[in-house]
Backbone:
């Protein structure tokens, strides 16, 4: 499709049409789109946690009602879907981080495997700290 330029010049400019399904063409595009979609599931988890805090602030009745809602099969299924999406998002984010991040120690560069291992180790430690405070406090 050619369009006459806005500056009034004589020669048209070629504007290529891009289909809405451009991201389905190759694997990297599909993985990129999947990573972006899974970020919405992380946002949904944040909304559920905010609703939990609101129920907690409204008193024991609202808190028990929220816990009953969390026990419904639909809520459990939603939580499982969110967990899978967030784990996928985290995995792809770690993989992406190893390609972006370059750590130099003197004249040497830290390997991608070491960076990924460090990220997973920090994730495990942070999860253990949260679990500790959740269980004991």
Residues:
């Amino acid at each position: 499709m050619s369009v006459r330029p806005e500056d009034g010049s004589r020669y048209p400019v070629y504007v290529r049409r891009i289909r809405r399904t451009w991201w389905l063409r190759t694997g990297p595009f599909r993985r990129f789109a999947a990573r972006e979609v899974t970020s919405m599931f992380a946002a949904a988890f944040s909304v559920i946690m905010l609703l939990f805090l609101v129920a907690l602030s409204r008193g024991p009745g609202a808190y028990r009602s929220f816990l009953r809602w969390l026990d419904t099969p639909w809520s459990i299924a939603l939580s499982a879907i969110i967990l899978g999406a967030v784990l996928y998002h985290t995995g792809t984010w770690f993989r992406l981080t190893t390609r972006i991040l370059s750590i130099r120690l003197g004249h040497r560069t830290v390997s991608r495997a070491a960076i990924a291992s460090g990220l997973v180790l920090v994730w495990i430690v942070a999860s253990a700290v949260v679990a500790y405070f959740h269980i004991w406090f």
